[in-house]
Amino acid sequence: MQESDDRAFHHARVRATDTKRRSVQAVWGHGMQFFAGLNVWAVLLAAAASFLFGGVWYGTLSKLWMDAANLTEEQIRGPGGPSPWPFIVTFIAQLVMAWMLAGIILHLVRAGVPSSIRIGLISGFLIWLGFIATTLVVNHRFQMQKVALTVIDGGHWLGVMLIQGAILGWIGMAQS
User: Fold this and answer.
1) How far apart are CA 50 and CA 68, in angstroms?
2) Are 106 and 38 in contact (CB under 8 A)?
3) SS3 label, residue 103
């Protein structure tokens, strides 16, 4: 009896998610571009939103970050002004991150987990905790960086993953 109740509950959640997704598609239009079940526009939006978040994050914490990274404004600006390359590389990297996170969420959806903002947030957090935070901590310890740098950079990457996860969980998957 319990198993049939669980199955009925799961199917009700899937129907509710499908209804929500249809209403989102009504807002965004039926012209959304999908590639292998992923909404390309959602991936671009997730990358752009997380890139903008990084600008606000590091803009707000710039003096603390420069102190933690042992950098001066002169070093950052360089002789000819700031280089655009770190920003270009950052956006491309965040685009790749959004695409990979979307792929992971798609695998969950295809396994029967309904796509939602909550699933996106949980996925983003777990990926941050398991891969990004651990890598950052190890690298910064071997590089003998200040703990403050790890906290600032780690907070940034947590924000990136949560923003991307929320957007991709909300509108990143094609309807089944």
Assistant:
1) 22
2) yes
3) helix
User: What length is written for the chain?
Assistant: 176
Which of these, 99, 146, 150, 148, lies nearest to 127 by C-alpha position?
Answer: 99
Q: CB of 42 within 8 A of CB of 102?
A: yes
The token duo for 174 is 């094609």
Residue 19's pLDDT band, with cuts at 50, 70 and 90, is: low
What's the pTM? 0.79
Whether 51 has a pLDDT exceeding 80, the answer reads yes
Task: List Cβ neighbours of 108 (8 Å cut-off, separation of 6 or more).
Answer: 115, 119, 123
Structure token digits, residue 73: 């404004």
Cα atoms found within 13 Å of the Cα of residue 2, Cβ hemisphere only:
0
Chain segment 122-151, per-residue pLDDT in tens: 999 999 999 999 999 999 999 999 999 999
What's the CA gap between 123 and 40, in Å, rounded? 19
Half-sphere exposure of 119 (CA within 13 A, CB side): 22
